[in-house]
Amino acid sequence: MGEAMTDELRLFSAAPTQAGWQYTYHALARNTDPETSHKAGRRARFRAGSQKIKLLHQYDIWGPLTAWEAGKASLLADRPGCAYWRRVTELLHEGLIVETGEVRPGPTGEDQRVCSITFRGQQTLMELNL
What we know:
A hairpin with a 2-residue loop joins strand 1 and strand 2. The protein has helices at 3-9, 35-45, 51-62, 67-73, 84-93, 119-127, and strands at 12-17, 20-25, 97-105, 111-117. It is built from 6 helices and 4 strands; from the N terminus they run αββααααββα.
């Protein structure tokens, strides 16, 4: 296998989960690319107006929240058909928020896990100037 192919393969990882395989995209630049490419890649992963960034910003502003609380605070929960809770799960998988171990009742009375922003999540917002 060529050196370029090896670099490309390091961009992804896969891990088994109960629901199947979880694929993680680690970087949008090769290990051999300059730092400017890595910075551009991190910025390209999120755009300031994306649903994930809107949610992540709420965790930064308000502290620990449930998915529903983050959805309401970002106004995404008020948008018909918006699956904001899926974006919260993606933020968890990407290490931008983390479960606190606390649960709170959601709008239906069912317990929801509470999450808070991680240092990595704060760095992401800083890179986007938010």
